[in-house]
Design brief:
The protein has 15 helices and no strands. The protein is mainly α.
């Protein structure tokens, strides 16, 4: 198993940089880069100044490759290119970026006047809080509920819980978040929970117990909004996995030997049925950790990685885009490895190292 883990860790390196190179090529082809945006802002400022002064003359920039660069000094264009690192050809920029990323040096943000590493570390607590607790609660609810639905398949309990789950799944997370704010966060009814932020303003002055309560008090509504819209898939996956295993011959044989239902369910069925559930953990965690929390972060004024990545993509802040992409990919590959190792813990018969030979 140790050899398998080392091999997977080594494979992360080419996979990580392969994804980075592909995205670098795609982004280079996308229009509206930081240089073009800076030129557009300068053009708008100079155009407004020219109209205010009553001048209508415009100087053509025949040597510029950027749209909207008319009327600007060529030396200014070159200065802007140098400022954003676009005075070098794309292959050279890619090689420099790979060298820096190998040492986890993501450079500085174009528009935030800060290191990308510092920005990621600053936003990470919000994303970790939302992703970790949402995924944990989702699994703690979905697995027992899915097992209960499988063992009571076709009963009123199964029908009513399925109806409630489908309704919750049909409501988007951001819409449910707004509903929670209206009802519980000082909207039209109750004022039980805070509306924004991860902690209160007096957080540093609270005791350890008070800090823990304050932390979860702020997380209650956003985590609930994320869980409601995401645990349906996991619940039905758990139920169907257990139903499939319960109908197999080894379960009938175990019951014929006189084993109790709980012994059969948790001693034999659980180990086999949970493999499919574990397989969905990496995608569920990464989905909630990054992409799924974007609108919830906006609604609850939580400044996390999802919101920062979206703003960076809109503003073409390439260092932040590539830095967060690097971290997202690295965490995704590590979580996938952890998911594979969990297979062996749930079912010791699975040996990835032996299957490779």
């Amino acid at each position: 198993m140790l050899a398998y883990i080392c091999k997977r860790l080594l494979l992360i390196i080419p996979t990580l940089f392969g994804i980075l190179i592909i995205n670098f090529i795609i982004i280079q082809a996308a229009p509206g880069g930081p240089v073009e945006q800076a030129i557009a802002k300068l053009e708008g400022f100079e155009g407004a100044t020219s109209r205010f002064a009553g001048g209508g003359a415009e100087v053509s920039m025949g040597g510029s490759n950027y749209r909207g660069a008319q009327g600007l000094d060529p030396s200014l264009i070159k200065e802007i290119e140098q400022q954003y690192g676009f005075d070098k050809p794309a292959p050279e920029r890619l090689w420099i970026m790979i060298q820096h990323y190998a040492h986890f040096d993501f450079g500085n943000s174009f528009f935030r006047d800060a290191k990308v590493t510092d920005l990621i570390l600053e936003k990470m607590p919000v994303s970790i809080s939302l992703g970790l607790w949402s995924t944990l609660i989702m699994y703690l609810v979905s697995i027992p509920l899915g097992i209960a639905k499988a063992t009571r398949h076709g009963t009123p309990f199964d029908v009513w819980t399925s109806s409630a789950i489908i309704v919750g799944y049909a409501i988007p997370a951001f819409l449910f978040a707004i509903l929670l704010i209206v009802v519980f966060a000082g909207g039209s009814y109750l004022d039980w929970f805070p509306l924004r932020g991860l902690t209160s303003n007096n957080f540093d002055q609270l005791s350890l117990g008070g800090k823990v309560l304050d932390y979860f008090w702020h997380l209650a509504l956003p985590v609930t909004a994320l869980v409601i819209g995401n645990f349906a898939t996991m619940t039905f996956l758990t139920k169907n996995s257990f139903l499939d295993e319960i109908g197999k011959q080894y379960v009938v044989t175990a019951k014929a030997k006189g084993l109790s239902n709980n012994r059969v369910l948790y001693g034999h069925v659980f180990r086999n049925a949970m493999l499919l559930v574990i397989a969905g953990f990496p995608s569920a965690f990464i989905g909630i950790f990054f992409t799924g929390s974007l609108l919830v972060e906006v609604i609850f004024s939580l400044d996390g990685l999802g919101l920062m990545s979206f703003e960076a993509a809109v503003n073409r802040d390439y260092p932040v885009v590539f830095g967060t992409l690097f971290i997202f990919t690295l965490l995704g590959l590590l979580v996938k490895l952890i998911g594979d190792l969990t297979y062996s813990l749930v079912d010791p018969r699975i040996d990835f190292e032996r299957r490779e030979h």
